[in-house]
Amino acid sequence: MYNYLAVIILVLLLCSACTPSHQEAGVSDTLRRQTVYPTQQVVEPAIVTEPVMFDTDDPAIWVNPADPSQSLIIGTDKDENGGLYAFDLQGKIIKEKTQSLKRPDNVDIEYGVNIGGRSYDIAVTTERLTHKLRIYSVPYMKPLDNGGIEVFTGETGDMFRDLMGIALYKNASGDIYAIVGRKNGPDGTYLWQYKLEDNGHGAVKATLVRKFGKYSGKKEIEAIAVDDKPGYVYYSDEGVGVRKYYADPAKGNEELALFGTSGFTQDHEGISIYQVSDSTGYILVSDQGANQFFVFSREGFEGNPHDHRLVKIIKVAAQESDGSDVTSVSLNDTFRNGLFVVMSTDKTFHYYRWEDIAGDDLNTAANKNQTTTAYGK
């Protein structure tokens, strides 16, 4: 009996000595509880949209505040004869709301821009071949830009004016900004930020307020996303990781974080932010070459809001996804806990139910009894 107990104690001591604690291994108890190892199971979309003519690239969700079931998906068709498409929640193209454009790349949505004494929700897209921002009212998709707004003026470097990514930011005072990226640019000032406001003649004007953003020089920067509530901007430095800054230009240009630096098979692409509450949720980043998304904690870990650790990897049916968007608002019977929309290279966008993305591992806004008012952001 005593020999048997001695053997058990010896085994336990040896295991303790050979296996480092989670703290010693650099893994917190919180991370250990939340991390889910990836599987090969592919999450299938609830809906696949009708195809566009040429090449889907980036979607944005507009949530109808009066009737969420009448919300829209605005997506780009990236071609010199492409356009900005409007889709309903059944994936049907709304032809009368679709606009023809010269190679639109990325698109984003913001709510409550005051123009000519009226409040508009807007969709802003980058038109690469004209070097312009194009701005449309939502849901009617009427232009508010007097033919477009030129950006990166004065730049002469190779592809320094070829527009790509865009994200919109609305601060607590109601000021709205566009953070714009391009095909190529210098380290430290790759992104330019513009304030969008009334030009006094019923259209939008853009005023440059800052230049910022580190760049590795390896590939390019396209995917940009802003988290309005805490006021952060994230962007993918492709082949390197996701960089984080303050969205408010008054807070300076210090880089707050660089995460997602390992495990990606090819390019870091589309970034989407799912809100569980005003301060918690998830940051989803496309691993384009593997048809999967890395999910990071939105609120950080262990009291550090800039420590965004990996909590899950999700394989999706969409192919080589370049752009995505997500909302935690309950839209209809299909998307009760929110909608995750993903671009696919078969000229379509895929709509995923959040509960299919979350599985048993991630939270939803509904099961936390939260009501979001930051529609689509």
Automatic annotation (TrEMBL):
GO terms for molecular function: inositol hexakisphosphate 3-phosphatase activity. This is Phytase. Keywords: Signal. Residues 1-25 form the signal peptide. The keyword Cytoplasm does not apply. InterPro entries: 6-blade_b-propeller_TolB-like (IPR011042), B-propeller_Phytase (IPR003431). It holds the Pfam family Phytase. It comes from the Bacteria.
